[in-house]
Amino acid sequence: MGGENLKERAQAFQSKKRLGQHFLINQETLVRIAHSQDISPLDHILEIGPGLGFLTSVLLETGASITAVELDIDCVKVLNDLTCPQLKVIHQDFLQCNLAEILEEKTKVIGNIPYQITTPILCRLLGEIGEPTPWLKSIQSIVLTVQQELAKRLVARAGEDDYSQISVLVQYFTEAKLLFTVAPEDFYPIPEVTSAVVRLVPHVSPPVQCNDHKLLRQVVKAGFKQRRKMLKNNLSFLAYDQEIIMAVFDKLNFDPQVRAERLDLQQFALLANELSKTKQSSKNNMSLSV
After folding, report:
1. CA torsion angle 42 44 50 54 (round to 10)
2. What confidence tier does 220 reach under pLDDT thresholds 50, 70, 90?
3. By C-alpha distance, which of 94, 89, 11, 24 is closest to 58?
4. Helix extents (H) in the chain
5. What sign has the CA pseudo-torsion 76, 77, 82, 83?
6. Is the pLDDT of residue 3 over 60?
7. What's the predicted TM-score (pTM) here?
8. What percent of the chain has pLDDT over 70?
9. Rounded to whole angstroms, how far apart are CA atoms 66 and 43?
């Protein structure tokens, strides 16, 4: 299946802008993406948004079984023409799928996904901090082609310009790595942005200890709410008195002027744990005074 043939097939298809369809037509890149998963015939692959099946065809050559979830009925018709016993095509919106019924005990996830719904897809796979999805334990690895700008945020560390709320979420659940970039010309239609392939490998267990995961989520969200503001000011969104916040900062040896982008996941967890203690202490004091 040569590159020119892929381009011609993509051009012949009426792509749908509302679905964010940009078909990857570079054969070398498709092979490189497939090989990044180290796939064997014993593996089960969940492919998100297979489109016209260009990556699907490469994956089928590995001998693995593949479940492909595709929203566009016209693409589903093309995929059904592959007529391979290893391939199961599901016509459904991935964000509405019951993944518990799709994922096998050990599944590798792969996909060239619509950029406008990358974050919802990640949350659908991983969950929220402290609330992993029921199927996360079945996922061995995730390889996604996403917008380069977002890829940088997914792998960013504390102190880096791209570090954000989604960075913290991804690091809570996985070890993330940016594998390589993909030029706009490798797609049809040609997107206006450069893409990148990222690999996420779920942790066996969360890398931090937290006493109140709901509070941790709130602290991270508040911290990045206005990222140019100092963290102590952003935490006021959680209705904590500045005196309490400064006492916690002093105990943790945090710079009073620190911004959220300087804190790593471990420091966010420590902050949430200390704020949780102050909340519990206040409740206890109120109980004693009644």
Report:
1. -10
2. very high
3. 24
4. 3-12, 27-35, 54-60, 73-80, 118-126, 148-155, 165-173, 213-223, 231-234, 242-252, 265-289
5. positive
6. no
7. 0.92
8. 94
9. 9
pLDDT at 288: 35
**Interior angle at CA 18, CA 12 and CA 22, nearest 5:** 45
Cβ distance 141 to 176 under 8 Å?
no
Cα–Cα distance for residue pair 100/172, rounded to 1 Å: 22
Looking at this protein, which amino acid is placed at residue 214? Answer: K
Q: Is 176 helix (H, G, I), strand (E, B) or coil?
A: strand
pLDDT band at residue 287 under the 50/70/90 scheme? very low
Q: pLDDT tens for residues 92-149?
A: 999 999 999 999 989 999 999 888 899 999 999 999 999 999 999 999 999 999 999 9
Distances (CA, A) of 213 to 180, 217, 218, 231: 33, 6, 9, 19
pLDDT score of 141? 98
Task: Give how far Cα 77 sits from Cα of 74, 81, 96, 144, Å.
Answer: 5, 7, 20, 23
> Do residues 143 and 154 make contact, with C-beta atoms less than 8 angstroms apart?
no
Tokens of 237: 């969104």
Q: Is 117 exposed, middle or buried (0-12, 13-18, 19+ CB in 10 A)?
A: middle
Within 13 Å of residue 147, how many CA atoms lie on the same side as its CB?
Answer: 13
Compute CA distances 75 → 14, 50, 53, 179, 199, whole Å: 10, 8, 8, 28, 25
Residue 42's CB is within 10 A of a number of other CB atoms, namely 9
